[in-house]
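Progress report, Aim 2. The chain analyzed during this reporting quarter is listed below.
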Amino acid sequence: MPVDMRPLLVFLSLTLLAGPAHAGETPWQEVAPGVTLRLISSGQVKADGTTLIGLEIDMPETTRTYWRVPGETGLPTELDFAGSTGIRSHRILWPYPIRHETADYLDYAYFGPTVLPVELTLEPGASGIELSAVLGICSDICVPAQARFSLPLDDAAPDRPNGLRIRQALAMTPMEWTADPQPLGDVELQRGVGMLAVQVDDPGLDPASLIAATESGEPLFGAPQKSPEPNLVLIPILGKAEPDLANQAIRLTFLTDMGAFEVERTIKVPATE
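Predicted structure tokens for the chain:
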């Protein structure tokens, strides 16, 4: 049975400098007992100046790290590319997570071996990555593990095994749903009961897979619940006080028989009589 990690939280910082990098990957670094990290590269820069790398995490199936919204006890992932040459921006392409829920807390996590894809936008002449990564690793205790990586960007051979690892992770990264008809309709705040009511219009969408999150990650939303009304799903707002969510943007992540998708909606508030 999972243990509430909050009383046992141990702040551990393992800063390890990578040794000489092979083309397309760094050496593995141990950041916690039984947990190793490395940086891998797709080895291909696209015409638009972007390239894909991946933070590869090798850990037991019972050990976890966290999604972009970690949850109530999870620790956030932080990537710092200061010191890199020619990296204009970066974006983590988060695969769809597991909702890890117990009687005491709810987190969004990845268990076992995991690759977190990262899209880099490069400037002309970009030559190298210097990355400092901090991420939560939890098993019996939780630790904010830290690692540092150096990786050259002069390896331009596509379709290498590391590129395949990254593409496999991308297969579970939600895509923006842009086509009509839309799978989800309005999102309405139900005042007084601490719920969001989400209209589900696509029978291929798994209502139990819905994850609601604001840009800041606050407040945290719980697991979806069935509504007495057809095609309506209720998502609880966690916390003691009901926040003012009127007209706030919210992202809804979900699974369909075609894969993982996301849409953005604005939370509506019914007019009061």
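Confidence is low (pLDDT under 50) at residues 1-22. The two ends are 47 Å apart (CA to CA). These observations will guide the mutagenesis work planned for the next reporting period.
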